[in-house]
Amino acid sequence: MRLSKSSQEYCVLDLVVGARPNLVKVAPLIRELQYDDQLKFRLVHTGQHYDNRMSEEFFDVLEIPHEHVNLEVGSSSHAKQTACIMERFEDCLMGRRPSMVVVFGDVNSTMACALVGAKLGIPIAHVEAGLRSFDRSMPEEINRIVTDSLSDLLLVSEPAGMVNLRSEGRPETAIRFVGNIMIDSLLRHLPVCSARKTYSHYGLMPGQYALLTLHRPSNVDDQETLRSLWTCFKELSSIIPIIFPAHPRTVKTLKELDLLLVKTPNLHVTDPVDYLDVLCLQKHALFVMTDSGGIQEESSVLGVPCLTLRENTERPITVSEGTSTLVGKSTEHIWRAAQDILQGRYKKGKPIALWDGRAAHRIVSSIKEHLGLGAGRSC
Ligand code: UD1
Q: Do 178 and 159 meet the contact criterion of CB atoms below 8 Å apart?
């Protein structure tokens, strides 16, 4: 779509968000676009995440303007949720056709909207392209593969993404190494988070607790797996207190197992916390245990050791240069790694190329180049 504002032409981007991590990624891009004369945006929220704690609070804290469109799809099976997003997003694109659809990460909303846009012949840009766990049992891996195969502009956060896209035969002209936009958000909010004392709500001190997050289907949907992990965390909490903001998906299985009926001292299970609180809790933790992709990245930049509760990662730089160690769901590995950290043996990590707070700026430049915008040229 080309529109003209005060005799100047500009292009409209549809920015698509659906789940909590998408909001952390879109915020820096919106900030960058707010000062741009050639690019305007429409923010489309699919409604995949709808609880206040998973969505609304993130808008406030990250200073994201209210979405222009909410597709209100809610929760469902993968096929039903994807189909509902597609149907509603297609109507939205028919009503007003953008110059480009920009999708983020690897959630169902990402894939569904890329598919709809591509079929309507609208260029797709994928932020966080090229990541591969090579594990197709993860719904996110399927979403990544489909989204990348449909995207015209592949905006890559770490070098492994470039390697993967090249080996899949994607042309150099479509690939841009722009760095990690999630880290733009982290660096912006770090001063405020560092000064926060969220840990004190649990009677804890900096460096004297571990932070736990857990929501992957492979860890939380199977009752026996979650029971075994829970036993491990319970035992671990007797030597280091654990703060555990629990995802609704995880709470559901914990309730089915009656594991939340009796409180475990030092294992502090809470509702999901907002972005600033989760950064504060990470920054001041002795170590983090997680299966989240974003937290693997954030803890690497914060220099906090991270035990990644997965067998693989699509973000290998967090292991090779960052602070992450893959421990899977083996309670023995988790124990051994935690003991090492308690005895001062852990990865320190190094600075990671282009995780520097400027990714949004590079993304906007890449989009403009792709759309043919630039000095003396219009959309
Ligand atoms: C989704 C993403 C995952 C991402 C995660 C971040 C997919 C396939 N997965 O997983 O990659 O890391 O978001 O949180 O897109 N629910 C609520 N309230 C909400 C949202 C969800 O109660 O606001 C509950 C519902 O019972 C729902 C379940 O959580 O069925 C799972 O939600 P869903 O969006 O399907 O996947 P996530 O597990 O959140």
A: no
At residue 377 the predicted structure's pLDDT band, cuts being 50, 70 and 90, is low
Pocket of ligand 1 (CB under 6 A): 19-21, 48-51, 54, 75, 106-108, 139-140, 215, 247-249
Q: Are 358 and 27 in contact (CB under 8 A)?
A: no
Give ranges for CATH 3.40.50.2000 in the chain.
11-179+356-370, 188-342
11-179+356-370: CATH architecture:
3-Layer(aba) Sandwich (3.40)
Q: How far does residue 76's CA lie from ligand 1's centre (Å)?
A: 10
**pLDDT band for position 369 (cuts 50, 70, 90):** very high
Q: What is the CATH number of domain 188-342?
A: 3.40.50.2000
pLDDT at 59: 95
For residue 306, list its beta bridge partners: 288, 324
